[in-house]
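@channel sequence for tomorrow's demo:
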Amino acid sequence: MSKQKTILVTGGAGFIGSNLCQRLLDEGNKVICLDNLFTGNKNNIKQFLDNSDFEFIEHDIENPIDIDTQIDQIYNLACPASPPHYQFDKIKTLKTNILGAINVLDLALKTGARVLQASTSEIYGDPLEHPQKETYNGNVKTISPRSCYDEGKRAVETLFGDYHKEKGVDIRIIRIFNTYGPNMAVNDGRVVSNFIIQALKNEDITIYGDGSQTRSFQYIDDLLDGLLALMNNEINFLGPVNIGNPDEFTVSQLAEKVIQLILSTKSKIVYKNLPENDPKKRKPDISLAQEKLNWTPKINLDEGLKKAIEYFKGMI
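structure tokens (generated this afternoon):
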């Protein structure tokens, strides 16, 4: 029987973080969830609060993290991830990324914990390479409405690499592609949740641009498998590694699928102007994850959307 681990999840009350807390508890670990509740929601973790193996700490990782408990692993997921939220206070988003990463890495250095950084496909910007491999350096503007998030995550990858090389911190870096599923906020602002909520409310489904831009949609359970595979690999594979579903759909195709699956909806599709620097294409090359982690997503878009629709029916 494997030794019980003590695992810190920053951003643990958010969409991905709360699902990760559930998985880690199910596997018999002690979990410390740290969140400032800016976009995280305590309702996402309320079912864990009476669990003796779970601890919630309300804290902003912009400030040093003072935890006396010996920690084995840290998942750094703390940062608003949808455009409406990370653009709400762009300076704070940068601080959360950069100062937060320094504080998390300093804690890992102090405790000897292995630490995984949740990076993002957004570091590729509006890509000129398709699909995107980890070797692609990206096409990102330093000054745009999205830069606080894109450049913040790029800087964090640099910090993680330098803490590993200069201080010996045991790191892992994952680049997460568009993910959806239970515990997404109703006002999350990302395309899957937007379309489902609009369709359930019989509102017009809003597409920004002409709908020809593509995305790859990953269900949360597949992402969790990838997170754990990267964190727990013992071949000293550090990443960065893409974790996403390589099945590519246009945004119009997504909207049409949502309408087909919610048979009762009266929603129609309407088109509005595309936001500045919104990527035209997004698709991961996952050959590295397949080779190093033996990871491949299992849940297709129709199956995942049905699960997500059932979740959101209970939320509105």
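heads up for whoever presents: The chain has a mean pLDDT of 94.
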